Amino acid sequence: MNLKEFLAERFQSKDKGKDKTENESQKNVFLFEKVFQKGLGLTGIILIIVLLSIFITLLISSTPSIKHLGIKFLYGKAWNPVTDEYGALPFLIGTLLTSLLALIISTPFALSTAIFLGEYYPEGIVSNIFKNIIELLASIPSVVYGFWGMVILVPIIRNLELKLHVLPYGVGILTSSIILAIMIIPYSVSLSRQVISMVPPTLKEGAYSLGATRFEVIKRIIIPHTRSGLFAAILLALGRALGETMAVTMLIGNSHYLPTSIFSPSNTMASVIANEFTEATGNVYLSVLIEMGLLLFVVTTLINISGRQIIKRYILH
Amino acid sequence: MENSILNVNHLNAYFGETKILSDINLEIPKNQIVAFMGPSGCGKTTFLRCINRLHELTPGARTEGEIYFFNDDIYKLNLILLRRKIGMVFQRPNPFPTMSIFENVISGYTLNGIKLSKQEKEEIAEDSLRKADLWKEVKDTLHKKGTFLSGGQQQRLCIARSLSMKPNILLFDEPTSSLDPISSNKIEQLLLELKADVTIIIVTHNLQQAARTSDFTAFFYLGELVEFNKTQVLFSNPAKKQTEDYISGRFG
Amino acid sequence: MDKLIRLRFYKDWLFKGGIILMTVLSTVPLLLILFYIVKQGISSINWDFFINLPKPVGEKGGGIINGLIGTGILVLVASVIAIPFGAIVGLYLSEYSRDKLSYWVGLCVDVLQGIPSIVLGIIIYLWVVKPTGHFSALSGSIALAIMMLPPIIKSTEETLKLIPGTIKEASLALGVPYYKTILRIILPMGFSGILSGSILSISRVAGETAPLLFTAFGNPFINTNILKPMSSLPLLIFNYAGSAYEDWHKLAWGASFVLIMMILFLNIVTKILERKWKIQF
Fold first, then answer.
1. Can you say how many angstroms the Cα of residue A63 is from the centroid of all Cα atoms in its chain?
2. Mutate which of A209, A214, A227, A317 to test chain B, going by most B C-beta atoms within 10 A?
């Protein structure tokens, strides 16, 4: 039977034998229709309300901290809850350093893999194997990365520090950046790969027909063409890195002092929150931690939105 | 044939297990316009792409048989040199969108890493744009992006770009199918002027275009070369019935 | 000329080699991690491991049962909250994709996906834990549910968008009311997408620790009451990994192994579902 018959059968068998008058049933259906359609929109509105509430809650709960500290929050170097000092600069720096260092370490690998999967091996067995491995990297929980880092990576870094005559903490900015780099590779690869594979073949063929080698096509045609898409991919990976908590907490050394080198133990905003939130005594202490959450929220949201805007514009172009 | 620039011997082409071209034998004469025509799927575009070995870019593609360019087997020739001497213009104009008009025209040189002085670049650009009949229209806007031109202008830009490499053969893959009649006409006129310098092979879906512009025509059907002759002869007195049916519109 | 060309071919070959090398190197960490977890984890696995509570240091036979049950309950409650709601929002986005409201809802989903999980933990602490005065599995599940929403919504939306409009039109042309068309025709056709999106989001959320730190908080005992604090596998791993005791480290390895196996299993199920249940239009 064809589609019409199939549909007719599905609905007729249920509605047969209903005893309502035609008008009444029509009215009911009409009402229900409206309720249904409005209901759908309502769920969307609920979602928006949830998001806005998140932002407002963070804002309101940060006000004690903002009133108490003001701008000092951002440039104060000393973090000493006991004496009521809450300078978050060490954590800001720690966050920035780890994320940027992670980006620097991971981008060459991520870009190469994206070119590998997007241009050299877009399909086939090789492609599937590597695609799956990269996806698996993204599935490993953060806490497991942290644990592995503690047991495997920290001793290696400690040895390195001994050789370089630096205090052999083992933990610190470098260690957490390395793990962070591994963790964000899948995110930059997936987006970059898509963007690279979407370069119109006719553009590449135009270059090949002029006698270019594959490397030259990649360097002169593909990369310039995908520049904004690749930038957005890196931006989104940065956003991911900024919010990462568990692995970093376990590997960064949890120090309250300004880091002096990449071997220093440090803290990120996320790791401070993770470590001290449940121990926070007093309204202001808690509020300062929440303010850090607010900062994280705002920064990651801005990065996220700009990244997606860039991608949308790139696709339309 | 004397004066043949391309000699094709027993060419077969495959995509994986599917045979696209069967036993093609053909001699392309120098400085003439040769049209490849035939219904969709007859293999004419595949054949064209075999000539500059673009066919190999598709995974699973392979060929058997030989193609001789002058007297060299193209499969033994350096791929890059081959593609410089045999240029290609595509169905939809594809100027490089990140480059200006000027940069597009000389992109063959910059992509190949060949260093030219500023004066050489300007000479080549002007020469190619003149040959492509585009110089007058763009000489004041050479540094604007190529994508601001109309379809017909973009296609002539692509022709100029290929011409800048001073090729011996220019392959055209249905170059006017995405253009309006006036632009198509301009390009057809251009082909007639170009053949003095370059041998032209044009794949076309348009019977009348083949009849108007070409000196020789090859008719393909289902992967086989059915007939090849001077255009006038082929259209007025086709040797094979299939050719006659196609020309009179009984199929295609 | 010839020398220049040879150099270019050489560079081309070198570049390809470099790309392959870097790609292979990128996969090395994964293989190392998996290898290590399997090696260390397998040696911790035995029957005791699955049915016992963690024992104090020095006593043999500690297990992770509180974590296993905890993860199960937390994820279950989170799914009950997130899947229906997420599917409906996804349905809304696919049906009303041209509305202005739809644009903002879509933006919302993107923002929600990018919120660091620890911030969500803070929020739920302020919304649920503080007012009720104690940590609870329910609060943890709510936090996890918020994290599950974006993947479910997106997967539902994309699957439903693939359904050709002609099917909806055929149904409406027969006089079938809109809501029935959606519920009886469209949604069932999109079922595979909703299901695979749900399983995918479960696999993502099963390994989360940060949002549970100040909501579910953890529990050294078995607990099935969602109004009380609850343990979970990731929380266990975090606590025991951070300790200095060899015994507890072994527990953490075992728990990591179990967790990874679970996640891998869910991923494979998702892939199989996506392939098998794809309805051909």
1. 27
2. A209
